[in-house]
Amino acid sequence: MKIDGKAFRTIWPGDDGASVVIIDQTKLPHRFETVTIGTVEAAAHAILTMQVRGAPLIGATAAYGLWLALRRDASDEALAAAIQFLAKQRPTAVNLRWALEEMRQAVAPLAPEVRAAGAFAKASAIADDDVETCRLIGVNGVPLIRALAERKAGKPVNILTHCNAGWLACVDWGTATSPIYQAHDAGIPVHVWVDETRPRNQGAALTAFELGRHGVPHTIIVDNAGGHLMQHGEVDLCIVGTDRVAANGDVANKIGTYLKALAAHDTGVPFYVALPYSTIDWTVASGRDIPIEERSADEVLRMYGQHTDGSIAAFSIAASGSPAANPAFDVTPARLVTGFITERGVASADRKGLLSLYPERGESAA
Ligand code: MRU
């Protein structure tokens, strides 16, 4: 997608042939800065500190990180150690493990002297595949928006999204945002309610940034406003992303997604989850088995923002001495999800729906 007229992906190979470049998402929306990553440690640090975040982008970064590890040491031992090291940086998004497993299968059979080259080719293929997969999610999601637009006689379709499942969370296009961008580009009037998404504000900082740069009308709301807007007919459709879908259709996504799904269910607003095949964890039977990341209490107790003089600062917002809990994801039961939007089409959010899209998984699904 474009920033100020220039097309970007979220990760790309460096000109020196020995690094990858990322957009530092901890600096957005106030500063657009890139970081050059030349070691597996730097790739792991980018994932851990959320310079890169969002399930598909975490996977692509880990894939390039493994390439960087193999440039230094391509032995069997180094390969296994680097996979283990990268996999432990964040627990919930299954795309991290998925990408590393894809990489392992591609490079383990190769002789050590050609492993690094093979790893670069595979990491690049994973990144390119994510772009095409997300584009197709958009193609498959647009008809849902178009159908609502036809009923609204020219008035914008109001779409609520949570967190950032946009192009910044992927390599390009995004998952939840891909149908939105493609509908907007096709001339369908859309307006997006952007949940701010406390505590890290990925909605206010990232989703609003990218929608704004693409010219998509949107409004930032506090996380608690969604239910009220749904009750008052101000939301036609919810589309969110996901970090892991269990084989029964339960959906892990950014904390607060469950509450939006409950409100949507109560008010009859369709609630769709957009996802690439790499986000389905066929090995877990239900959402109960999905590990939930617990992050620092500091993210709850303090907020980062920009002063009027342009400086970035952290502010304490809580009573001093009070502890805080910070579960970063929740699980929305499949029964609250209207459907899945994937690169293969739209299906019901349950085991049957998933297997109708991915019949080849029938044997292996938990
Ligand atoms: O903690 P984050 O910012 O990595 O969480 C991101 C989300 O929860 C996204 O909604 C999810 O990864 C889907 S990204 C297409």
Give keywords.
single chain, 366 residues, alpha/beta, Four Helix Bundle (Hemerythrin (Met), subunit A), Rossmann fold, 7-stranded mixed beta sheet, 4-stranded mixed beta sheet, 11 helices, binds 5-S-methyl-1-O-phosphono-5-thio-D-ribulose
Brief description of this entry?
39% of the residues lie in helices and 19% in strands. The protein has 366 residues and is an alpha/beta fold.
Question: How would you characterize this protein structure?
Answer:
- This protein has two domains: 2-129, Four Helix Bundle (Hemerythrin (Met), subunit A); 143-361, Rossmann fold.
- With 366 residues, it is of the alpha/beta class.
- 39% of the residues lie in helices and 19% in strands.
- It is globular and about 60 Å long.
- The two termini are 36 Å apart.
- The longest helix has 40 residues, at 112-151.
- 5-S-methyl-1-O-phosphono-5-thio-D-ribulose is lined by residues 53-56, 93, 163, 165, 169-170, 175, 202, 241-243, 253-254, 328.
In sequence order, what are the helices and strands, one letter per element?
EEEEEHHHHHEHEHEHEEEHEEHEEEEEH
Instruction: Just name the CATH architecture of the largest domain.
Output: 3-Layer(aba) Sandwich
Low-confidence stretches: none
If you consult CATH, what is the topology of the largest domain? Rossmann fold
Can you count the beta strands?
A: 18
Fraction in beta strands: 15-25%
- The neighbouring-strand order within the major sheet is 8-7-6-9-12-17-18
The set of bound ligands, ions and cofactors reads: 5-S-methyl-1-O-phosphono-5-thio-D-ribulose
Number of helices: 11
Q: What's the average pLDDT?
A: 97
Provide the structure class. Answer: alpha/beta
**CATH C-level of the largest domain:** Alpha Beta
Radius of gyration: 20 Å
How would you describe the shape?
A: globular
Helix content: 25-40%
Number of domains: 2
Characterize the largest beta sheet: strand count, sense, and whether it forms a barrel: 7 strands, mixed
Give the termini separation: 36 Å
By CATH, the superfamily of the largest domain comes out as: Translation initiation factor eif-2b, domain 2
